[in-house]
From TrEMBL:
TM segment ranges: none
Keyword DNA repair: no
Keyword annotations from UniProtKB, A to Z: Catecholamine biosynthesis, Methyltransferase, S-adenosyl-L-methionine, Transferase
Homology family: Belongs to the class I-like SAM-binding methyltransferase superfamily. NNMT/PNMT/TEMT family.
SUPFAM superfamilies registered for this protein in UniProt: S-adenosyl-L-methionine-dependent methyltransferases
One of the Pfam families matching this protein, by short name: NNMT_PNMT_TEMT
Name recorded for this polypeptide: Phenylethanolamine N-methyltransferase
Organism for this UniProt entry: Terrapene triunguis (Three-toed box turtle)
Amino acid sequence: FTVKTQSPSAAMSSIAAVGESYQKFNPRAYLQNNYMPPRADFSSEDCVVPWKLRCLAEAFATGDIHGRTLIDIGSGPTIYQLLSACDHFEEIIATDYLEVNREVLRQWVRGEPDSFDWSPYIKHVCRIEGKGEQWKEKEQKLRGKLRQILPIDVHQPEPLGSQLCQPADALVSTFCLEAVSPDRLSFERALRNVTTLLQPRGHFLLIGALEESFYLAGEAKLSVVPVSEADVKEALSKNGYHIHDFRSYLMPPSLKIGVDDVSGVFFVHAQKQPVA
Ligand SMILES: Nc1ncnc2c1ncn2[C@@H]1O[C@@H](CSCCNC[C@@H]2Cc3ccc([N+](=O)[O-])cc3CN2)[C@@H](O)[C@H]1O
């Protein structure tokens, strides 16, 4: 019985390979695959996008998650994951590894005409939050709070380099860690690295893919480390988190459209335990 341990150099080369594969990532194709119909269908609560938005809205509706700054880890070219957060934080910091994604986010913040239309998402979140908020208000509020869009590499012990002045009050991350980690060990290390960005007792809302091994983004075919519910729970516990809520969504056959082999989506509301 031999334990397969990776030598540091082997781990480095597979992480370098991930970074190389992302050079072909096409944000427009990625948005088309995951954030347009059929996956973005707001007519049914059974659809995956409304399910994700409801998980986030309900977590923030508890009133337990608030503070000065929230960091979104591996934002990609999307902002939907911040719509319910923006009422509870003064500043929201978006991050991504690729300049093309950071530029897509900046275009949206600037309200450029050809940027991605998130209005169906904003209208849906205003509806399910039930505060009678006008969607244009929420759009402007988020634009006003999204003041920093920073480069990040979750495989670095200091993922934001020396840019971060102090740990954030909360973290959000959607579909990033498993999609940038070659294996479970590097997934756990990436979680350890991003945890340094969070205050003790800070909250972490994590959404990700279950048992996914690849996804497409235009020319790019990206590898994903398949993780199960148990893998995610174990990684969080190993990194000193208490899990308040864990939910899973089973991808219906109608949403298995060939852009990935994801079998489900998980949502976790976890809290970083203070070191005793
Ligand atoms: N080293 C790094 N550190 C931080 N971020 C990094 C690093 N490398 C790449 N990145 C950055 O992380 C990436 C985040 S997008 C990852 C996509 N994950 C898979 C995809 C997502 C998805 C979405 C929605 C649904 N659904 O059913 O609704 C299913 C699925 C399943 N497929 C990308 O922005 C890259 O630019």
